[in-house]
Amino acid sequence: MKLVHFFKTKVLANLNWLGAMLTIKTTTGTLIVLLFMAGLYSCNLEGSCEQQAEAFVKELIMPDSAPINTEIDIQVKYLLYNSCGKFNKFYSSVNSDTTSIRVHVDYIGCDCPNVLPDSIAIYKFTGRAKRQYFFRAVGVDGIVFQDTLTCY
To answer: Which of 52, 59, 98, 108 could be bridged to 134 by S-S, CB 3.0 to 4.6 A?
Structure first.
């Protein structure tokens, strides 16, 4: 009953419900919740076929080291909730030597097959000093992915 009450009061009242719902655990696991959410997310709850959401990161793929002042590509693999999702942009914040990366996605379309495709976007980075740089991104269930780049 609490889940139904939550759904009626929070989810339908606010389209920013996706992240909150993903924290719900079931006895069959998080994958069932993701599949359920993909089905709900593709529905047209308020007559709009356009939404924006933050995508969960699955993996950061990057070199271990690079020369200073050299642009490198960091492949950010992320999870879409249906086939209408398209990469919009990265939001990043830098705190000293640590960069936190967030992926924002546009969902455009009302008839979106309920598949959970992986996608990759390229984050560009240039190390300006000889040191280690740390990169973080948040995945499903709050798992934090971290990788390190050493600039020489």
So the answer is: 98
How far is Cα 84 from Cα 104, in angstroms, rounded to an integer? 13
47 vs 54: CA distance, rounded Å: 21
Phi and psi torsions of 7, nearest 5° = -60, -45
Q: How far apart are CA 127 and CA 15, in angstroms?
A: 38
Task: Give the pair of three-digit tokens for residue 41.
Answer: 């997310």
pLDDT, one tens digit per residue, over 25-49 is: 333 344 333 444 444 444 444 567 8
d(CA 116, CA 34): 9
Question: The tokens of 59 are what?
Answer: 């993996």
Residue 66 to residue 126: CA distance in whole angstroms: 9
**Residue 48 identity (one-letter amino acid):** S
For 26, phi then psi, to 5°, come to -125, 170
- pLDDT tens-digit profile of 108-139? 998 888 877 789 999 999 999 999 999 999 99
Answer yes or no: pTM beyond 0.90: no
- Report which of 66, 138, 131, 80 is spatially closest to residue 109, judged by C-alpha positions: 80
